[in-house]
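Standup notes
- HV: blocked on the assembly model, inputs below
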Amino acid sequence: MAVDTGLFVAMTLVYLVLIIGLGYLGYRRTKENDDYMVAGRKIHPVVLALSYGATFISTSAIVGFGGVAAQLGMGMIWLTVLNIGLGIFIAFVFFGKRTRRIGHRLRAVTFPDLMGKCYGSPFMQYAAGIVIVLGMPLYTAAILIGGAQFITSTLQIPYTTALLGFAAIVALYVVLGGLIAVMYTDALQGGIMLVGMTILLVLTYVQLGGIVEAHTALAGMSALVPEALAAGGMTGWASMPAFGSSIWLTLVTTLVLGVGIGVLAQPQLVVRFMTVRDSRALNRAVLVGGPFILMMTGVAFTVGALTNVYFYRDQGVIALAAATGGNVDTIIPNFINASMPDLFIVIFMLALLAAAMSTLSSLFHTMGTSLGFDVIRRTGTERATMRPIRLATVAMIAVSIVLAFIMPGSIIARATAMFMGLCASAFLPAYAHAMYSSRPSLKAAKMSLVTGTVAWFAWTAFVHVKESAALGLSNLLFGVPAVLSAPWQDVDPLVIALPLSTAALLVGWVLDRHEVTADTEESAGAA
Amino acid sequence: MFGITDPAIWVGYLLALVFTLACLVYGLLNWNNGVEGEQDGS
């Protein structure tokens, strides 16, 4: 272990005391349902921006996607472009303000609740809640794995202890303090992440002799691309893969588009728009959110690609060869442990813990409120109280922990992309329709939600070979790992399911308007 | 640009910076807009 244990223990204790203090503050300020679900609708804009950013960016973005950048190169920067352009600017300005205004007017407290109330339909609330309850544990488990892997590699403690301890601390303040505790701790964690990523960028360039020198060295390594990757279309770490090749399709459709677009309809992010008093807070949050995301994913992807220069110079191997057991998720931790001073390893570990905890807390909260408020309540009493929601949160946390033990280790980036793709396919067209139509069509929303979910699942289980081969359904029913051949089996489910979901919404909308027009004419004729 | 020769990469970096700048400018220009009761403009 490269870390000074005394220093690490001291800093971690200070960090945990602050987190528990903020969690306690959230607990004290949580008096009623609105406090637990939407933080009383009076969160400060800077807290909103940092909480949104820290939830958005997990260990998955830093360790998982940073590792992918080490493998596939700087083309990942296009995900940062979408993260800032769509994930912050479009999300806050074009979706956030309307979500806040409509959410306040309808007194919505969760994303499924917002959908249900916008469409006046218990089905929409129930169905959105079910998609979250079934899909989000996959993403949550990936975040748990990422956090536990880093704790294990840095502290050399057993993986099981790391995973359980990590989950227990986050669970404590989420269950007791609700969204106020989640957002207060998120803000502190976002600040730590900003410090950690800034130092990481500066030290990496210093290590490699400067910005231009580092990039030039990386561009000069293209001859070292492994044969298997070169055959898949990879041309180097400072250039895009060959257009249309399987690696290009994975990079562009799964990683850039899947995650970049998926963020617009993430339930745990959408609910944050409803936590502020007015649109001024959202305007101010944009100013903080853009630079924050640049310093998160922009730095992770750049440093990830540049680890190739470091490992080649110091160990004579590319980053992929320096990964433990070929697992790309270990590249960034290995780079930090090998190249950075002790003090920074501790700071970066805290930043990674913070990144994992902030995302994890939000996912725990969203899953718990979806199960306890949107799904169970619909089959029980109309008025929900905090107790069943807290119990539901504990249940969803337990499910996620079990999944984390079952899922493979090298799953962080893929599980993130899968969840984001599912959210976009299932929710985005219906969510946009609800926000931008004065009389949103329930038929259109139902058709879109069902089509998007089914299409995403079908493509994932039977065509997109990276998932279909692992799931085994295609093999069981048709005797092949994927029912379509290349290039289709490299195309991400989102690229198919989102257009279908959008088309279903448009068809449903036209049918609905046609029926209304026909009814009106019939009434006029009868009169 | 800065040692990166493939335009498909450096244009990505340039756009990431442009969008960040857009967030900063938007936030500053609308710093006091959007108080409850006013029109949001979106």
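- HV (later): unblocked. Residues 441-527 of chain A form one domain. Residues 159-207 of chain A form the longest helix (49 residues).
- Next: hand off to the docking folks.
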